[in-house]
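Progress narrative, Year 2. Work on Phosphoesterase from [Clostridium] leptum DSM 753 advanced from sequence curation to structure prediction during this period.
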Amino acid sequence: MKKRRIMVPIILLALACPVIPGFDSGLKVRCYTVESDAVQAPVRVALISDLHSCGYGENQRELIDAVDSQNPDLVLMSGDIFDDELPDDNTEQFLRGVGKRYPCYYVTGNHEHWSGSGAFLEKMDILKECGVHRLSGVCETVSVRGTAINLCGVDDPEASFTASADPARDTVSFLQQIDQVRKASENGNYTILLSHRPEFFELYAAQGFDLSLCGHAHGGQFRIPGILNGLYAPNQGFFPKYAGGEYHKKRTVMIVSRGLARESTRVPRFYNRPELVIIDIV
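Result:
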C-alpha cells in the first residue's frame, strides 16, 4: 500500500511533464525565408496579427523591443490588432511605438468591424495618428533598397458591419476588392497581399499574388507539434487546413501568423505560443 501511495504522485508528475510546457504563453519570434527573383536585395517584413489589444509588458515594450531586434524594412498588420471587447490602450501604445519609426501598413480583421461603427472609426483614427497606413481595397508601391514592392490590402469580409460609417471603404465586396488590387498590381513588381483570412488561399493563388500574409486562425488554439497543427480555427472549423505556417500553391506563398492574442481568448493556447513573424524575401 505504501509503495502504491508513492507511485501515484510519480505517475501524475510524469503525465504533467509534457502538458505544463504546452501552456507557455511567452512571445516567440518565428522566421520564414521566401525566395524570389523579383527582389534586388533582401527585404525583411515583420508581420503583426491578432494582437486583440493584449498586453506585452509596460507600454508594450516586450513586443516593441522584439520588433526592433529584427530591424524590419516593413511592418505589416493583418487584422484584429484591436479587439471588440478589450480597451484600445495596449494596441495604441504598440502603434505609437512603431508607427513613426517603420513603414507600417494595416488591414482590418473581423473584430475591428464587430466593434460597431463608432468604435471602429475611433480605432481608424488611432491608426492615422500613429502613422499607420490602412490598405482598404488598394495597392501601394514602396521601394526597399532598389526593389519596388506592391503592397495590396483588402478589408475583412465582415466589413459590412461598419460599411455605412466607414469613409475609407467603397461599397464593393471582398471579392471585388481582391479583383481591384490584382489589377492595380499588374506591373511586374513583387506583390504582397495583406488579408486577414487564410481560408481564401485558393483565391489568392488563382489571382497570382507572390506572397499572401494572413492571420485569423490563432494557430488552431491547441497544437501537438509534429502531430496536430491546430484543433479549431474560425471559419475553418475543426482540424483547419491553414492554422499557421507556410503554404504553397501555384506561384503563391501564403504565411499565416498564429497571432499574438493572450488574455483576450476564452480558451488558453496549448503548444501554440503567441508569435511575431519575420519574413525575409531574398
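The domain at 25-281 is CATH 3.60.21.10 (Purple Acid Phosphatase; chain A, domain 2). The CA atoms of residues 113 and 159 lie 6 Å apart.
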